[in-house]
């Protein structure tokens, strides 16, 4: 999965590349005047966040309400659930902004059908995708 994080001083123009699904947008409320972005412990994923690279910082000063707006884009070549590379990629854009109402794009008919099909398939027995890995000291 590819994850791109962009930090902006003001709202970026919406992505017009038609390979992205419609964006979701939400407001975050910071508990402090500075925000630091970091990934969770990558475990065995060696390319999740290079150890020699510093964590990302949102440099612009935050308003009194300490609001940060986050826009989320997603794309998957193959929307089928499961394990493996489905060409999944995400774009996260952040910028200082007052807290406002979330933006959720309307679900398309094909989205509703895919959700119903997924729910119907999940009602049966689940495939076991667990894998045992050796423990290294």
Structural summary, described in words:
The chain is α+β, with helices and mostly antiparallel strands and 137 residues long. The chain has one helix at 109-122; strands at residues 2-7, 24-29, 35-37, 56-58, 67-75, 89-96. It is built from one helix and six strands. It has a four-stranded mixed sheet with strand order 1-6-5-2, with no helix packed on it. The chain has a two-stranded antiparallel sheet with strand order 3-4. It is extended, with a radius of gyration of 19 Å.
Give the helices and strands as they follow along the chain: EEEEEEH
Give the helix level as a range of percent.
Answer: 10-25%
For the biggest β-sheet, the strand order reads: 1-6-5-2
How much beta, percentage-wise? 25-35%
> In DSSP terms, counting alpha (H) and pi (I) runs of 4 or more, how many helices?
1
Can you tell me the residue ranges where pLDDT is under 50 for at least 5 consecutive residues? none
Mean pLDDT: 75
- Would you count the extended β strands for me? 6
Largest sheet: 4 strands, mixed
Instruction: Tell me the radius of gyration.
Output: 19 Å
Oligomer: single chain
